[in-house]
């Protein structure tokens, strides 16, 4: 089975302290008490035979956060590989006037507690935050961290 492919959006803005990026804390019981390495860009898997990475990134943003992403140009930052072999294509988009409000997090089902036979629903994301790239570097899952360097390079080292 080939490794999974995902696509996501790295939303950024200029805050009072400089560059900030939007990150999402992963939902569900596995991540509930974790912080470092438990955050992600809004992203998800797609079938490259049925959808482009850019379309998948927008769709996944809507599915995970329940709102449309910022309307600006989506700039390809690159494809990044996780240690597992999974690949994620990341697009940057400036937040502009977009506000992170009225969010309705998507949900997933899983057996919980393990081996109980009961299925429970959990949010894909349980909260979002704006973070400086240095903070996001520590919080994001390792496979997505190179997207931050690509964003900084694209923005001229900001």
TrEMBL record:
It comes from the Bacteria. Residues 2-153 form the Nudix hydrolase domain. One of its GO terms (biological process) is ATP biosynthetic process. GO terms for molecular function: bis(5'-nucleosyl)-tetraphosphatase (asymmetrical) activity. This is Nudix hydrolase domain-containing protein. It comes from Microbacterium ginsengisoli.
